[in-house]
Amino acid sequence: MLTDTRQAPKPGGRSGAERWQRELAGAVREPAELIRRLGLPETLREPAERAARLFPLRVPEPYIARMRPGDPEDPLLRQVLPLEAETEAVAGYGADPLAEQAQRTGSGLLQKYHGRCLVLAAGGCPMHCRYCFRRTFPAADEGGWRAALAQLEQEGAPAEVILSGGDPLLLSDAAVAECLQRLAALDGVRRVRIHTRMPVAIPARVTTALVRHLDQAPLQAVAVVHANHPNEIGAEAADALGRLHGACTAVLNQAVLLRGVNDDDAATLAALSERLFEAGVLPYYLHLLDPVSGAAHFDVDAATGLRLWTELAHSLPGYLLPRLVREAPGAAAKEVLTPSGP
To answer: What are the backbone angles phi and psi of residue 256, rounded to the nearest 5°?
Structure first.
């Protein structure tokens, strides 16, 4: 799903839409370039290049701009820089940690939970997060979302359709509009949920046209974004999230608890919740790591997760407290973790 796709929209012009296309096409793909740009130790280069052969580097300029130069431990850098640890085989970690391949149809539909289905709307992402649970997932076919919608039109659709991938906002504004219109025409569909990293990775993707399409959609539109650290929500990202908030019924955030990124203390997670809410986003889930190959060095155990969550519960109002969850293959729903005892 997230294999490095070299083809990107052609840059040109000065419109907002073309700006995000330029930033997508200009994403840094070579570890040596990222290391040079940030003034990082040269010793990081060779291990990063080895790991990038298994899962390519991809990180856009707007995201790099929020990193601290010269700091190998920067929490944003750690999410995207390939490390030697990714090349090590670890028991219990595999290519398909949620057993999604068995739930995928040829048209790019996933049926995991009752009452909703997932459309693999795009095969790529604006950036390659090193902990991604679909980092080895086969790429979706170009335009495969149309085949998925055709299947729903023929067989019927549930109340909620989730656009995922990859990142569905790699689609053009016109394609997003077409998708929304076709979903709205399906009997029984009430909501569309869009899972995207774009407003954080490339804030310019939240164009005037995209906002208009979402605002005018006959369906309730919910955006689920992904930020793990408060430093990801810079001024431009906050503005993009605010514009999404104005167009959608709700904007929610899913974070992943990651070693070396946001597990240092509860204050980091509290600051993330506060910054998201200022931008019009409600914290939704805090995930424990899915055991995908190459990501074991990010793992934070459940006991630590519960401790951090409990500290968060003591410092935040309930509406800013994400649910701590983990996902198991074949389960009827995500498991919500709560402290035991009275």
So the answer is: -115, 135
Which residues touch 301 (CB under 8 Å, ≥6 apart)?
none
Q: Are strands 323-326 and 116-120 parallel, antiparallel or unpaired?
A: unpaired
Taking only the tens place, the pLDDT of each residue in 70-90 is 999 999 999 999 999 999 999
- Number of domain units in the chain: 2
> Please, where are the H alpha helices in the chain?
16-25, 31-38, 45-52, 61-64, 77-80, 144-155, 173-184, 198-201, 208-216, 235-247, 266-278, 302-315
Q: Judge if 174 and 267 occupy the same domain.
A: yes
The burial of 155, by beta-carbon neighbours within 10 Å (0-12 exposed, 13-18 middle, 19 or more buried), is given as exposed
In this structure, what DSSP letter does residue 104 have?
A: B
- For residue 154, the enclosing domain spans 101-336
CATH number at residue 134: 3.20.20.70
Given a contact cutoff of 8 angstroms between Cβ atoms, the answer to whether 201 and 58 are in contact is no
